[in-house]
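User: I'm writing a tutorial on reading structure tokens. Could you give me a worked example: one chain, its sequence, then its tokens, then a sentence or two explaining what the tokens reveal?
Assistant: Sure. Here is the example chain.
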Amino acid sequence: MIPSPHCFQTLVAKMGVGNEDHVVVYDGHSEGLMASARVWWMFRLFGHERVSVLDGSLRRWKFHCIFQPSLAQEL
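And here are its predicted structure tokens:
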């Protein structure tokens, strides 16, 4: 099910995400349900161009010291 553009915009705005933000989505585990792909697709569907999918789980990025918490805001 796809929300209306207004509903999606309202929800995203409540999370503090604006058009100028680069959104990086990820699944919680390496064996995740690929929900991040759907979130990426929905952002693109509603015109947000600065959205990426993290390659691998956040846990893996933290383990390899690639993740920089100071640059991220978890929603």
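What the tokens reveal: The first helix runs from residue 5 to 14. The chain has a mean pLDDT of 81.
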